[in-house]
Amino acid sequence: MLEGNRVRAVHGTLMHAPVAGDVEILEDALIEIGSDGDICDVTVPGAAGFAEKLSTARSSGSFVSLKPGQFLLPGFVDLHIHAPQWPQLGKALHLPLNEWLAKHTFPLEARYADVQFARTVYRSLVETLLANGTTTAVYFGTIHAGANRVLADLCLAFGQRAFVGKVAMDDRDQCPDDYRDPSPQAAIEDTDALISYIRDLPDNGSGLVKPIVTPRFIPSCSDPLLEGLGALAQSMECHIQTHCSESDWEHNYVLDRLGRTDTRALQDFGLLGRRTILAHSNFITDDDSDRIVAAGTGVAHCPLSNFYFANSVFPLRAMLDKGVHLGLGTDIAAGPSASMFDSCRHAIAASRALEDGVDSSQPAETRGRPKSRIDFRHAFWLATAGGGVALDIPVGKFAKNYQFDAMVIDLNADASNVIWWQDADSLGDVLQKIVYGATRANISQVWVGGRSVAEKPCG
């Protein structure tokens, strides 16, 4: 570890995606980081003062020089994680969603009344995600005040940038008797208390960990609860997260109950705004997407879990072209992978499936949805800068005044699946191979706000 766990300068090849669909590779560049974790400057060879800056950085004592085969990438932004479902990862995914929730998820989440159980699980989760390069995590918690506080405490202790939400769910017809809020007012008061707890945490003055208002989704919440959470989020200027038009059942349930779509209903309840993240949104209408764009709301695209439970492929490229703020989510545990690299790959695969179609009995010309594909550039942006835009926070790219949330990808790692042919692969080829083939084994160092939060021992 560096002194004070902080780095002040890194020299090497930087790879990022400042805008959707485009990547920038800065070879042998110098990135300087302030004591607050902000990037002060990015300087490339040949620029005025580069040699002097590099010399000063080398003598600073908090300097990292990347080795051949190592590359600096922004940290990942995971917009949708169910923290209590971590022990459920990879289990029972053959079941329909309602059975998966009733038989496995809700009984598991009810266990978080035990704070020690929560501490054990959440420690494992936060450490694993950081080791996988997830520097910003957006978490659904449970209904339990103690467990949610433990999750916030651990994120802060381990240095992960995080949004932590108390799940609100009070509908007696849709929620289990042993796992629901006793009343709308109780859920609102507990949410308010968690907001204050997180904002008042010692050593959280920079807001590394933030609260986020979290109605599970409309079917699990009464109208008074949704109205109250909307008012609370606005008065406290707090982020919001929920599920939106995820599946046939969920989308149609809301239409039957309220006579309008999830998006319109969330807007009416005061839950649609610039600081809102909507998970999934597979069945949103054109009118819905117009509302989302107008509100500046973000959408968490969760391609892997959509394959299992959403009954459709999200029209990602169409929503990008329309101007929706978009990022990626693992959706642990409905998405059975902790790696945002996997989310990138599945986003690409889902877009190709939507464009080409999947039913070979249909004519090729009508089998798919034209102009739906994305490539590795879009996926890389979605997992980094796109997530930052969706959350409206300065992360995900290497630019002045952005936070230095970054990871070192080492292609020389013993267990690397990325095969790099130095005499044949351009740096653009290398980045493409990283997006398609890198794993946790390739991540040798992770920083959040300039602080080292995960590091593999040398040798």
Structure description:
The chain has two domains: 3-74 and 397-455, Urease, subunit C, domain 1 (Roll), CATH 2.30.40.10; 76-391, Metal-dependent hydrolases (TIM Barrel). The protein is 38% helix and 22% strand. The protein is built from 15 helices and 17 strands. It has helices spanning 50-58, 97-110, 115-131, 145-158, 184-199, 223-236, 248-258, 262-268, 286-295, 303-309, 316-322, 340-356, 364-367, 376-391, 427-437; strands at residues 9-19, 22-33, 39-43, 63-65, 70-74, 76-82, 134-140, 161-165, 167-168, 209-215, 239-244, 276-280, 298-301, 325-328, 406-410, 443-448, 451-455. Strands 6, 7, 8, 9, 10, 11, 12, 13 and 14 form a nine-stranded parallel sheet that branches. The chain has a four-stranded mixed sheet with strand order 3-2-1-4. Helix 4 runs parallel beside helix 5 and helix 5 (184-199) packs parallel to helix 6. The radius of gyration is 22 Å and the shape is globular.
